[in-house]
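User: Okay, second chain of the day. Same drill as before: sequence in, structure tokens out.
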Amino acid sequence: MIDIDEIQAILPHRYPFLLIDRITELEEGKSAKGRKNVTINEPFFLGHFPGHPIMPGVLIVEAMAQVAGVLAFKSANVSNKVVYFMGIDKARFRRPVTPGDTLELSLTVIKSRGSIWVFKGEAHESGALVAEAELMATIMDK
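Assistant: Same drill. Structure tokens below.
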């Protein structure tokens, strides 16, 4: 398990853009699982459907990308580098995510070649698929 302190040592993101709370599983070069606890205190709920708060789909994808970033960083066994998000394909949103939900984010490496990584990402809440996408990232010098 990777806690928030180690996540912050890997990712350059900070509040309000650090969107993952924990990495619960990581198999280097293959897959990772992370968790995002969605609370009413999230700043995006102020303007995204006031009175009926829904987590923006783009932020669910960003949370998946952050889990992918930790996976790529740990798998490449590098330091003083940063993982940059490069692309999104086949994104689909299946159901809304609301305050009180816990997102379970699963990322699997589809392929990696040099510094380029491609992942299949899924976000689940209470076992139900809420979003999925293919993500591309690269590892570069800071």
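Strands lie at 22-27, 31-37, 81-93, 102-113, 116-125, 128-141.

User: Thanks, on to the next one.
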